Amino acid sequence: MLRKGSRSRSRSSGFMWRHSGTCTRFFFCMDETASAKFLAPQINEVWKAAVSFQVDEPDSPFALLKMCDYFQMHKYVDIIVEALFSMPEKWPLCAVPFLNALRPDLLDSPNFPFEKVASATMERFRSPPLAATPFSSNPESDEAAQLFQRKSCAASLRTFSLVSYKP
Q1: Mean pLDDT across 100-115
Q2: How far apart are the first and last CA of the chain?
Q3: How far apart are CA 131 and CA 145, in angstroms?
Q4: Are the beta carbons of 42 and 24 closer than 8 angstroms?
Q5: What is the phi-psi region of residue 146: left when phi exceeds 0, alpha when psi lies from -120 to 50, beta otherwise?
Q6: Are 17 and 60 in contact (CB under 8 A)?
Q7: What distance in Å separates the CA atoms of residue 103 and residue 165, rounded to the nearest whole number?
Q8: Would you give the DSSP letter of residue 90?
Q9: Rounded to whole angstroms, how far apart are CA atoms 30 and 48?
Q10: Is the pLDDT confidence value at 129 over 80?
């Protein structure tokens, strides 16, 4: 018998997932469809406010994705992947190899945001350390360098994803 204010110790009560100071309760019940509908808006709200999207952190969306894939929670994996695909600008550079190692079929799906990932990666390459190269003195060579970077980044994403992820 439980006293007032005590918690049930059953596994069906759910678990707490702490993310950037925000606690969100995910209920894993028998009806995956109903709980998935409840979970989708919460994931989007929490992750839009998230500061860190590092692959190695236990509080990151990638850790939750790996856990749900391990426990074969397919509806949750689909929701998490959809949420991740909507914000590739927050991905670290090692996210593509991580996703390829976790589920190789994700990179071939029509929903994979190759162009968004390529443009987000290009923004990282345009950071101030690379902008101070000798190419920036000549506008024509600067445009050529940017075009080359854009094309090579988009073309090498698939090759980059074949590199095995090592935590």
Answers
A1: 85
A2: 44
A3: 11
A4: yes
A5: alpha
A6: no
A7: 12
A8: G
A9: 28
A10: no
CA–CA gap between residue 92 and residue 99 (Å, rounded): 12
**Residue 29 CA, distance from chain mean position:** 24
For CA atoms 26, 28, 34, 36, the dihedral sign is positive
Of 41, 54, 11, which Cα lies nearest the Cα of 29? 11
Residue 16's pLDDT band (cuts 50, 70, 90): very low
Could you give the C-alpha distances from 149 to 38, 79, 98, 124, 163, in angstroms and in order? 41, 32, 23, 11, 20
Per-residue pLDDT, averaged over 22-30, amounts to 41
> Percent of the chain at pLDDT above 70?
44
pLDDT of residue 166: 54
Which own/partner contact pairs does 161-166 have at CB distance under 8 Å and 24+ positions apart?
161/96, 161/97, 161/99, 161/100, 161/107, 162/97, 162/100, 163/97, 164/97, 164/101, 165/55, 165/94, 165/97, 165/98, 165/100, 165/101
Alpha carbon of 1 to those of 8, 9, 15: distances in Å?
A: 10, 12, 21
Query: pTM of the full predicted structure?
Result: 0.54
Q: Can you give the pLDDT at residue 27?
A: 41
